[in-house]
Write a structure and sequence with these properties.
mainly alpha; single chain; 455 residues; Growth Hormone, Chain: A; membrane; MFS; transport
Length: 455
């Protein structure tokens, strides 16, 4: 590898021979995917259930859309991006099972603590705890998945794992709305302490419980041996200077990949963050109705999109498109431009739901493929840090910026909360166009890596 010196080899027990890298996956590998998908699912329940509680929180704490967006974005994202590189390096050098076990338990505790908040700032701090702990999931999970499956099945394994955000986002809306409505009729006055809680607090408490069960399921996971990447001949431990040199040598891929996917993630987070509010404010729908209908749409179309990605890529590869793992994400970004613009012309609840459904499919379509491309193009002992950088830039733009950009346009440009749909449309259309530009450049860099591997 150009510019990378030979480093100390890891113990033999930690490295899978090249001849064994494409064996059939074990039952333990599929159990791993099952547990990690559950973890990813409920991590999104924990982070997105807040989106359906905007009304009660706004009323109880007297908040503007901008201050609410800071709970959606900054509170979570600040801790998330601070801890992502730390967890990324830990995933490259340590035991990924232990990292995941501790992180799942901590973010579940943080979600439950959100339900005990008595002020805006207590809720803000609890959300920071959730974000910091959830930062462990992507670098550790991506790394352990690649080492658990043969190369040909890595996109499929990622597509199953990456159903988590769409299942979780859907469940957060469906059951969050139903639970919020049901909790308003509960009489908990006889239950110590719980009798003092408001319905939105009960929703947070319940949302945090499944994570503790998932943490127990992680105990049965085994830490796999580490495998080689494209262009990698020895699975070497890598110093920080070596990691940096790889990023410099392949900056035409990494820089454009991160910029393009970060822009695409703006669409992914902006839609579920503000689409419920748009449907309720513009068309007078109830939280329960929006939760169930939009939640089902996100769950079904998001899951379908992420599962269809590897199928489309495989079809393209059979027709000579070796770069399909990056070609499909670029096409998805282009598709999102007209879909996002269409939201500005939604004159009915039904048409708005159709647009939201198409967007959910389009922004989920490239996720498993982009993740696979990044991990396969990256040396094993820097996969965690490469994933954490992806988490960092995607979180700054998606989790941190996306909700607030929409809110600022609504509060200060259109100055009408009923215009949130226009803000959402404008934000997502511009983000999709920027994403398509950078992903087209990343595609060329990815082709160069493929060419180097073929030599």
């Amino acid at each position: 590898m150009s510019g990378v010196a030979v480093a100390e080899l890891p113990p033999p027990s930690q490295t899978a021979p090249i001849s064994e890298q494409d064996d059939a996956p074990s039952a333990g590998a599929w159990y791993l995917i099952f547990v990690l998908t559950l973890a990813y699912t409920f991590s999104f329940v924990d982070r997105q259930v807040l989106n359906l509680l905007i009304g009660p929180l706004k009323a109880d704490f007297g908040l503007s859309d901008t201050r609410l967006s800071l709970l959606q974005g900054l509170a979570f994202t600040f801790a998330y991006i601070v801890f992502s590189p730390i967890f990324g390096r830990m995933a490259d050098t340590g035991n990924r099972k232990v990292i995941l076990l501790g992180g799942i338990g901590l973010w579940s505790l943080g979600t439950s603590l959100c339900g005990l908040a008595r002020s805006y700032w207590q809720l803000f701090i609890a959300r920071m705890g959730v974000g910091g702990a959830e930062a462990c999931l992507t670098p550790a999970a991506w790394s352990i998945i690649v080492d658990s499956f043969p190369t040909r099945l890595i996109p499929r394994a990622f597509s199953i794992f990456l159903m988590g955000p769409y299942i979780g986002g859907g469940l957060a809306l469906i059951f969050g709305g139903l639970l919020l409505e049901a909790a308003q009729g509960w009489d908990l006055s006889a239950v110590p302490y719980l009798g003092e809680l408001k319905p939105w607090q009960v929703v947070f408490l319940v949302a945090g419980l499944p994570g503790f069960a998932i943490a127990l399921m992680m105990l049965r996971i085994r830490e796999p041996s580490r495998k080689l990447a494209l262009t990698e001949t020895k699975p070497e431990r890598m110093a920080i200077a070596q990691v940096w040199q790889v990023f410099v040598d392949r900056r035409d891929f990494y820089g454009n990949f991160y910029a393009g996917m970060a822009s695409l993630v703006i669409v992914l987070y902006a839609f579920p963050a503000w689409m419920p509010a748009m449907l309720m404010r513009r068309f007078g729908a109830s939280a329960a109705t929006v939760g169930v209908q939009y939640g089902v749409a996100v769950l079904v179309t998001g899951s379908l999109g992420v599962l269809c990605g590897p199928v489309i890529a495989s079809w393209l590869e059979r027709r000579g498109r070796a770069d399909a793992l990056m070609r499909v994400p670029m096409a998805a970004a282009l598709l999102l431009i007209p879909v996002s613009i269409a939201l500005a012309f939604a004159k009915s609840y039904g048409f708005a739901m159709i647009v939201a459904t198409l967007a959910s499919f389009a922004y989920s379509l490239p996720m498993a493929l982009a993740s696979s491309a990044l991990q396969l193009a990256t040396p094993n002992r820097m996969r965690g840090i490469s994933a954490s950088i992806y988490v960092f830039v995607a979180s700054v733009m998606g989790l941190g910026a996306a909700p607030t950009i929409v809110a600022l346009l609504t509060d200060h440009v259109f100055a009408d909360e009923r215009s949130v749909g226009l803000s959402l449309s404008l934000t997502c259309a511009v983000a999709a166009a920027i994403s398509a530009f950078f992903l087209s450049r990343a595609l060329r860099g990815y082709r160069r890596i493929l060419d180097d591997a073929a030599r």
